[in-house]
Amino acid sequence: MAANESYMEKKVISIGTVCELTGLSERRIRYYEERKLIFPDRSKSGIRKYSFLDVEKLVDIANKREEGIQTSEIRKEFIKEKKYDEKTLREKVIRGQINAYFNKRS
After folding, report:
1. pLDDT, tens digit, 9 for 90 and up, residues 82-106
2. Residue limits of the HTH merR-type domain (predicted)?
3. Could you tell me if residue 31 is inside a domain?
């Protein structure tokens, strides 16, 4: 496990367990993968592995679909959220660098 990877991010859960946790069928989960909504890792033998964050995301996707939201709209929303998260992270890094620079000069 990477040093900054939490147990929530570690992809160790099989699709069967994900089905049990979410109530979704394997076919539905694969469909969400085809639609580029979820990105499981693959073992050397091709077995899909999911994280707890993936499980939460699948439940969120299923809830949105029940509300009638199309998968293309869900994907756009996820992309927008990811860009926002990346922008926020960049801003925090820059603020940290600025603070470190000025603290060092004091």
Report:
1. 776 777 778 888 888 888 877 876 6
2. 12-80
3. yes
Cβ neighbours of residue 61 closer than 8 Å, sequence gap 6 or more = 32, 37, 38, 71, 74
Q: Which of 56, 89, 57, 53 is nearest to 74 (CA)?
A: 57
Strands 13-14 and 41-42: unpaired
For residue 50, give its domain range.
13-105
At 24-55, the pLDDT tens digits run: 999 999 999 999 999 999 999 999 999 999 99
CATH at residue 81: 1.10.1660.10
Domain count, the chain: 1
Extract the tokens encoding 106.
């004091």
* CA 77 remoteness from chain centre: 13
Q: Is residue 71 part of a domain?
A: yes
